[in-house]
Design a protein that fits this description.
This protein is α/β, with parallel strands linked by helices. The protein has helices at residues 15-23, 38-47, 86-96, 126-133, 146-162, 172-179, 184-197, 209-226; strands spanning 2-7, 33-37, 54-58, 67-73, 77-83, 100-103, 167-170, 229-234, 238-243. 38% of the residues lie in helices and 20% in strands. The strands form 2 sheets. The protein has a 7-stranded mixed beta sheet with strand order 5-4-3-6-7-9-8, with helices on both faces. It has a two-stranded antiparallel ribbon with strand order 1-2.
Length: 249
């Protein structure tokens, strides 16, 4: 999969010029420009913050179902595990003190929506509508089991934010679409191999789908820290953080 035009640094350029060239995504009309795979762009963007710590949370709508966690830290070393209760998630936050917590769950209500418990005409946030415009499949947050996940996500966010931690909403299925990876329901082994190719080499073939999604959450959080992300929606209403759209050549 090819994505961007990248420019090799000139042999005679200064260190400052090299830094500028390395941050350019597309350079036109240079004889030393070359096409590189998009996964390499993501990999290089993420390792700029290799010393950062990110906790990815693939939150379940109920404590009766598993929640996947992924700790992503120095040199993109990651560890995944399963929890069920909110206090286990908060305990992990306090133990590892991540720079950002990337949660796969709605963390805000649509503007104008007052309750999830009674019928109301508002079902979508601006970030949800942006997903739909980009043809990224998702479940509306006010229907079916998504209501329970939304309640849990909004409640869970308050504890770490009250302790001074940064919490962002992410969507691993959408991130996988952007990064050209299959979603877990299509092929979990291929998803794991794709995440390993992006640098998460500690992932093993035996991880669950919840853990693989948590790893995708953590990777999105790392891209957020490096500035290589897109914030969908309105900041006051609530945003979804995604990898930048796959560019066209």
């Amino acid at each position: 999969m090819l994505a961007r035009v990248w420019a090799e640094p000139s042999e005679q350029g200064s260190a400052g010029n090299h830094a500028n060239i390395n941050r350019e995504e597309k350079i036109v009309g240079r004889s030393n420009a070359r096409i590189v795979p998009y996964w390499w762009i993501v990999y290089m963007a993420a390792i700029r913050h290799a010393s950062s710590i990110v906790l990815g949370v693939d939150l379940a709508g109920s404590t009766s179902r598993p929640t996947g966690l992924c700790l992503l830290r120095e040199k993109k070393q990651c560890v995944t595990w399963i929890v069920r209760r909110d206090d286990e998630i908060i305990e992990s936050v306090m133990r590892h003190r991540p720079h950002v917590i990337a949660v796969d769950a709605p963390l805000s209500m649509p503007r104008g929506r007052r309750s999830l418990d009674r019928p109301e005409p508002v079902h979508f946030r601006e970030c949800d509508l942006e997903l739909r415009r980009r043809r990224i499949k998702f479940f509306p947050i006010t229907i079916g089991p998504m209501r329970a996940l939304t309640r849990r996500g909004i409640a869970l966010k308050q504890s770490p934010e009250g302790l001074g931690f940064k919490v962002i909403e992410v969507f691993p299925g959408g991130a996988q679409d952007v990064l050209g990876l299959p979603r877990k329901q299509h092929s979990l082994p291929k998803l794991v191999r794709g995440l390993r190719r992006l640098g998460l080499r500690a992932l093993t073939a035996g991880v669950t789908g919840d853990e693989a999604d948590a790893a995708t959450c953590a990777l999105t959080g790392l891209l957020y820290l490096s500035g290589d992300y897109a914030a969908l929606g309105d900041a006051d209403e609530g945003q979804i953080i995604m990898p930048k759209n796959r560019p066209t050549v």
